[in-house]
Amino acid sequence: MSEKHFSQRTTNILLGASMIILVAALLIRYLTSAPQEGVLALMGVGVFLFLLVAFDQPN
Fold first, then answer.
1. Can you tell me the distance from the alpha carbon of 38 to that of 12, in angstroms, rounded to the nearest whole number?
2. Is the separation of the CB atoms in 21 and 45 below 8 Å?
3. Is 28 in contact with 39 (CB distance < 8 Å)?
4. pLDDT tens by residue, 6-53
């Protein structure tokens, strides 16, 4: 049975988006007075995208 994986382009886009989200969350956390819950939610989205890419990689 063949497994489906993201294309290389999709993988790069998801990885780039997750890194941008995580860096933005850190900047928002330390440079503004944004509510802690919003920053944690944003970091959660970034980590989810990163793990989605990590677990999709072929062996």
1. 26
2. yes
3. yes
4. 899 999 999 999 999 999 999 999 999 889 999 999 999 999 999 999
